Amino acid sequence: MKESRSFGIAVLGKYSLMREGISRILQEQKFRVLTSATGVEELRGKVRAQRLLFLIVHTSDDFSLVAAEIGRLRDEYPEAHVAVVAEHYAAAEPGLAFRAGAAGYLVNAISCDAFVKCIELLMLGEAVFPPAFPAPEPMAGKRRRTGRGAGIPRQEQAATAGCASPESPAAPLLSPRETAILRCLIEGDSNKFIARKIDIAEATVKAHIKAILRKIRVQNRTQAAIWGINNAVLLLPANSNSVFSAAEAETGWTLSR
């Protein structure tokens, strides 16, 4: 992904082991990790003005310290993107992070694949929050200002899929055909390519995608792909004839044909 090479990432947090773990995951995916540090003070002199993404690793019960850190980052690096990687989910924290100026709140219960997708979305200027957190209202043509400093560019929709807390309700089970199409979305296939692969009309693909978004409660195909990765749909074959046995083995449900 071109965006991943143009950004520099700094990982902040109290514990070096957690910072190193996140850094290694990102480096293995060819992201450019500039440094890791305990906080903003330690960052000085280590990162320069460029396209930056700061990941704050949150491991305590006191989110006010994280909110303050977000504010300091927004003051010193107003064009940077900032996101929180939380050790556990707390219902009030996504809203506090957003108001402080963060563009995302990720929970370490998600898979590595979903985490990487979320990082890519952050680099594209998307906001990435748990599904239970209401998406911010669109501000077309404007830049969000929350907490201190200027906000990051906003897309019309917040990316909320794939970053759910363990408490998030399970989405309704997709049909075998919808599962096959979702797997194609994970692979980045266009509607036209999906239609050829599964041998259905392109209009039918669009109808299925609309149904998928409604069932798993996301707003676009990128968010659906993240949801699919985080719910093991990546393991299912993108072939409607073989989806039955794979989905049944994965879920333990018997799917009606």
TrEMBL record:
Transmembrane segments: none
Species assigned in the record: Bosea minatitlanensis
Domain named HTH luxR-type: residues: 167-232
Listed InterPro entries: CheY-like_superfamily, Sig_transdc_resp-reg_C-effctor, Tscrpt_reg_LuxR_C, WalR-like
Gene3D superfamilies (UniProt xref): 3.40.50.2300
Sorted UniProt keywords: DNA-binding
Region (Disordered): 138-170
Lineage: Bacteria, Pseudomonadati, Pseudomonadota, Alphaproteobacteria, Hyphomicrobiales
Full protein name: DNA-binding response regulator
Any one Gene Ontology molecular-function term assigned to this protein's record: DNA binding
